[in-house]
Amino acid sequence: EVQLVQSGAEVKKPGESLKISCKVSGYSFTSYWIGWVRQMPGKGLEWMGIIYPSDSNIKYSPSFQGQVTISADKSINTAYLQWGSLEASDTAIYYCARLRYTYSADYWGQGTPVTVSS
Amino acid sequence: QSALTQPASVSGSPGQSITISCTGTSSDVGGYNYVSWYQQHPGKAPKLVIYDISNRPSGVSDRFSGSKSGNTASLTISGLQAEDEADYYCGSYTSSTTLEVFGTGTKVTVL
């Protein structure tokens, strides 16, 4: 059974750093792209970027390039999303998702709520 | 890359059929057969219900069907049921970012 299990909810202050995780099981981690999706409160879905764990090839959405860092550790089947300096506007739910070869996301994590507030 | 355009809301009575549109450009919806649809219930993660325009993942009801004409894709839900009440997002590969771009989302209400 394919599973993507994300790390728990986070509450942070502006300016702090953060790294959230997505551990996968049930399939070959290095054979599929995996990506991150942002959903701000009451808003729609936005792709942030994707990574191919086999060679760490990364594609960022222009809106998120330079704002976050996506990485993966294939030794522990885990993908990461990190911020160097959080802002209040980073408050959102972040989902990881596995991509089919035609770019649709067929399996999703449960989501990680991130709250940034002073 | 702008989001694909969907109606904000669509409603229907139980048993009826509804159709949600998703309009893009020749750089995304119109240029590729990589259109997907996602269902999201409140407080839950999205779920893929259609991929590659008209294919259903295993376990998805055959009441969900997809199609495409030109730059517009459509999701039809037939035999509407209370459990279909949710937000629906389309997605399409776009050559501008070589990623998928989502639609603006449609809230489906079962009357």
Indicate the topology.
The complex is a heterodimer of chains A (118) and B (111).
Chain A lengths: L2 E4 L3 E3 L5 E8 L8 E6 L5 E8 L4 E4 L8 E5 L4 E6 L8 E8 L5 E4 L3 E5 L2
Parallel strand pairs in A: 2-11
Antiparallel strand pairs in A: 1-3, 3-8, 4-5, 4-9, 5-6, 7-8, 9-10, 9-11
Chain B lengths: L8 E4 L5 E6 L11 E6 L6 E4 L13 E6 L2 E6 L8 E9 L4 E4 L3 E5 L1
Concise overview:
Helices cover 0% and strands 52% of the residues of chain A. Chain A has 118 residues and is mostly beta strands. By secondary structure, chain B is mainly beta.
Describe it for me?
With 118 residues, chain A is mainly β. Helix content of chain A is 0%, strand content 52%. In chain A, the strands form 2 sheets. In chain A, strands 2, 4, 5, 6, 9, 10 and 11 form a 7-stranded mixed sheet that branches. A 4-stranded antiparallel sheet of chain A has the order 1-3-8-7, with no helix packed on it. In chain A, a hairpin with a 5-residue loop joins strand 4 and strand 5. The relative contact order of chain A is 0.31. The model of chain A has no long low-confidence stretch (mean pLDDT 97). Chain B has 111 residues and is mostly beta strands. In chain B, 0% of the residues lie in helices and 45% in strands. Chain B is built from no helices and 9 strands. In chain B, strands 1, 3, 4, 7, 8 and 9 form a 6-stranded mixed sheet that branches. Chain B has a 3-stranded antiparallel sheet with strand order 2-6-5, with no helix packed on it. The N and C termini of chain B lie far apart (35 Å). The model of chain B has no long low-confidence stretch (mean pLDDT 96). Chains A and B meet through strand 5, strand 9 and strand 10 of A and strand 3, strand 7 and strand 8 of B.
